[in-house]
Amino acid sequence: MKNMVLAISLLSLSVISTAAPITTKSTQQDQLGYSYGYVMGRSNAETLKDINLDAFIQGIKEGSNGQKATLTDEEMAKALANYKQQSEAKQLQDFKSLAIKNAKEGDAFLAENAKKSGVITQASGLQYQVLQQGTGKSPSASSKVLVHYEGRLINGTVFDSSIARDQPVEFQVSQVIQGWTEGLQLMKTGAKYRFFIPAKLAYGEIGAGDTIGPNNTLIFDIELIKIL
What we know:
With 228 residues, the chain is of the alpha+beta class. 43% of the residues lie in helices and 19% in strands. It has two domains: 2-70, no CATH class; 101-227, Chitinase A, domain 3 (Roll), CATH 3.10.50. The chain is built from seven helices and seven strands, in the order αααααββββαβαββ. Helix 1 crosses helix 2 and helix 1 (2-16) packs across helix 4. The protein starts with a helix and ends with a strand.
């Protein structure tokens, strides 16, 4: 259905591209065509830049009119498969390049950060800084804890924050990323630490979500509220 709407949108857009600008005074049909075309064009900009729109519109017109295609079904399927293969190969290469870039930047950051006063580096590569000492017990890997946290990239981008939501979270210490599992066991109840976590102790070469890329080094401010 999405592809059908996109096709109709682009067809509408091509028809009115040389006409007067579309405004609220234009016909409802023109406003609808322009709106679909603009929204879908913006949403699919990355894909559309590789497409010959004239050929695309020709295919739409001939297909909707029931004309015989100038390519066989097999030839069209091959063209689509080739494009998909090339696109996926490019995406993979871009991903690998980004992973290499992030790894280098992370290594450089951690090397400089290790020289700062108050920063302690573990054998695993985990770095931490004590923001506030605790006075209670330390959790074990099997403990369930309640914490407040804020996570950000080394460029300062905040990707998650229970502090901003004003909603602490609870979980088992062994069921989070390795950097957290190791770091939390260094803390005592009531403590606040800042952890600098290399990618190998976080989300590695895969990353997580839209913000944490491959091989991103992460920074977390964590408050151990209590052991449950």
